[in-house]
Amino acid sequence: AYSLRSGHSGGRIYVVMESLYSGLDRAYGALLARALRHRLLVVGIALGAIYLGIGVAGRIPLEFSSKADRSEFEGVVELPQGAGIETTKAIGSRAAKAIREIEHVKSVFMTVGAGERGEINVASIYGTLTPKQQRERSQEEIMAMIRSALRQAAPEARRVGVNEIPWISGGGFTAYNLEYGLQGDDLGVLETTAERIAAGMRASPLFADTALSFEPGKPEIQVLIDRKRSADLGVPVRLLASTVRALVGGVEIAQFEESGKRYGVRIRLDADQRDELHEMERIQVRSVTGRLIDLISLGELKVASAPARIDRQNRARNVTIFANTTQGVALGTAVERLEEIVAGVGLPAGYHGKHEGTAKRMKDTASAVAFAFMLALVALYMILASQFNSFTQPAVIMLSAPLSFVGAFAALALSGMAFSIWAQIGLIALMGLVMKNGILLVDYANQLREEGADAHSAMLRAGPVRLRPVLMTAFSTIFGMIPVALANSDAAEFRNPMGVLVIGGLSSSTLLTLLVVPVAYTLLADLHSSTGRLTNWVRGLGHRRVTEEDSARPAATRRLESVESLVDQIPEDQHAAPGAALVTKPRP
User: Fold this and answer.
1) Rounded-to-integer distance, Cα 269 and Cα 359, Å
2) Is the pTM of this model over 0.85?
3) Per-residue pLDDT at 491 exceeds 80
4) Rounded to an integer, what distance in angstroms lies between the CA atom of residue 378 and that of residue 204?
């Protein structure tokens, strides 16, 4: 602890800072006096600042969370259905080698068929980058280079893509920035509509890695059974299906262990016996009578393609469109463009689409934050109304809230940041920070008015006196937010918008509040004074009307009413006895 001696004048820094503050105090006092003389001009500037802030806010794109540079990525190479594991491995290795040659790529690890569904035609590539502090390129720029390298290294791939590593994996969460689901009854209509929407997205520079959950073209051998002939020959369809499934697809019949490992025993036909239709036609099925009947006698065999999977949602068939946003494109901008594409394509009757994944969470979060923002304003008004015992003074204090919009949103726009969930949380916190300036001014002005000063004089004194604590709290908060706004650590992009918004909003609010709140306070005082004079004039008008009516009545009537009123004021125990008469003497 450090104790100052009485009369200690401080060092050179103190003298310099105090002289600067003294000059600032005098300048603010003169500016405040001029503002109180031109109150309508100050009100116009305040309204212009609010309008400008709302206009800038409408131009800032919406985002769920900023793209974070965590020096890692995930690449995907998807081959057409039917590609074997050896083919996928060879092409995936070629793609991984191309990625390793890109600058700032530190390590690459490739797996085949390692997803939730074990698709052997999909190669997943996990890679790490050099730390962001040691490179000039951002992760988004490097990911764009990797995406281009994958296209060149795997031209035969059905789809290539590069994603951020998701914070949450599994459970329906994907690494894609954008998901849009189409629901309906006819899978063919869903596929056609989804392909048209995806084509529009691929033609737009806002989207990358566009893909569909519907995967047509999976080759399979179909057995078209002649049910009448099958019944005549005594072969149940169920028995026929189980026989073909066991011989072609295989069936696990046992397990054995060796060296601590467990292996499954699966039987099926050899590859040369099940890869050709004429060989499969020789498969025999035993009828209920025990006869062996050739498969070709029961139906027709052919090679066809079928969907790899059929998704359903809310008991309806569903096709989901996946995409990532390109470098520098916010999710809100991409969502708006996707809705325009969907409106241009048009959904058939009975079919509808909706946003899923991150886009859905962005919309839900924006609605929740808007509700929390309004609830915070209501709570602040209730607290201020109880503190100042007034319904109008809290409104004067809360003027500092919209005055912060121009600085907050201008700071986001100038820094090129989106209005993410963290910036929205910062906006709610900003409401409580900016209103303390108005509280300091109004509270001290009320104290001066209780001592007999008028509103104008009270604000002229309260402004310079409260300038020091107003600046101290504002600068302390701004300096505390600078590390948040300028942080360059891994994934710091999540917190940067919050710091930038709070710094900009607190700066504009502090500058404008010091002039707008005193002007609004004096205008409110003048309004109350005018309302009071109007009330007194109305009361005086009523009193004069009663006096004129009273003077128009006869004098005897007025004297009798006055006597009756005096009698009513006599206590009951002093009333005259029954039969007594009240005698009044005439005046001389």
Assistant:
1) 48
2) no
3) no
4) 43
